[in-house]
Structures are given as C-alpha cells and as structure tokens.
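Input sequence (233 aa), recorded before submission:
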Amino acid sequence: MKAMTFGGVALLALAAGPAPAADVSAAAPFGAAPAYDWTGLYVGGQIGVGEGSSVQFFTALGGGSTGRYDLSGVAGGPEVGFNWQFAQHLVVGAEADFSWADLSGSGSTTPSYGCGTKCSTDVNWFATERARLGYAFDNGVLLYATGGFAQVEVSPNEDGYVQSSTRPGWAAGAGVEYRFNRNWSAKAEYLYVDVDNYVWTDATSKIIDCAGLNCSTDARFSLVRFGVNYRFE
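Predicted structure, token format:
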C-alpha cells in the first residue's frame, strides 16, 4: 500500500505542476483559450507498480478455497491514443496499451483446498482499451478519468502444474497529464484491473486435487504508473 500512497501524492504534485512562463506575470482571463490543444494522435510508454489479490477455489462437493492471497510486482509497455478537445477545456479520448507484467503471489494449503507444495497466481501480461474524459487547464495540465476493457493472461499454479489463459476483464482509473512543450507530455495514473473468476480445470485434469471439481481463480490488481507521450501535430 505504500506504493499506492506514493502514487497518490505524485498525482497531486503533477497536477499542481509549474505553469508556463506566460502565466507567471498575469493570470489568464476567464474563458481564455488553453495553452495547448490536446486534439491529435500520441504514442508513448508507461511503467509502474501493482498490488492486488487472487484466490483459487472449487464449488463441487461442498466447495473449498485457498483463501485470498496477495499479488504484487511491476508492469510496463507501450501505449497509443487519440484526443479530441471541445469547448476550450473538455477533452474526450481513446487509449490502448500493452504491458508486460511480473505480478505474482501465492497461498497455502487449507483444510478445504489441497495445494500440495505450492498454490499461486501469476499475471504475465495485460492489455487495455479505454475511453478517457478530461478537463484541460490553461497551465498545460489535463485531469482525466478513464475506463474500458482489459485482456489479462492469468497463470494459476497448483503444486507445479500451470495452466495459463487469456481472460477478459475491465479497467478503470484516473490520472493527470502535463504538457511541458508542444509535443511532449508526462503523466501519472492510477488504474484498477479486474478479471472475474473462471474455471481452469475439468474432469481430465492432471491435477488430482482438482480433477472433476472445476477449480477456478481470479485476479484483481491496482497499478500506479508513470508515462511519457509524444504528440503529433
């Protein structure tokens, strides 16, 4: 949680970032055009840290569960997006990103769910496609909310047997972006990603403890990440 707290402080600090020199001598008049037009295509990259949780369980024969265990790690990769700016300050956009991830965690055997020597979950990569809605200030700062779809590769592991699967989910968050010149911007963002539970074994499973029981898992994690974008004008 320390990483999440640090990220929140960073969001506020970036939002209060330095204003352009023109704003130092005199405040911009009410309704004046913003310093930059955010309309256009951009590409960039982002990296951050994540914390979350996962669980393994089955519902047959009265059910059993590992109990929820923590996930943590890092993630980062490229992103691309497009913004449209309306009515001077309103910004609507679409953004897609792909992140290589090293988010993992493990639980222990319980009386109702036998893990053998290891029960764990790994998130190897994820991608999101999201809408963005923001407000552009005259000092080059954009505050925005974002939400949309996610695809996540989840790898549950029971006693050394791993069965990876790419699962659909959703993502939502908020961030702040700062234009430090016409083409370049930096951002800090909080993003929550959720993959609902899904069945990953069946009656032919090689895992004795899960054979015929349809073991399931899920993955939920929060990210604080920082990025840099180049804008084409």
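Checked by second reader. The helical segments are 2-15, 21-25.
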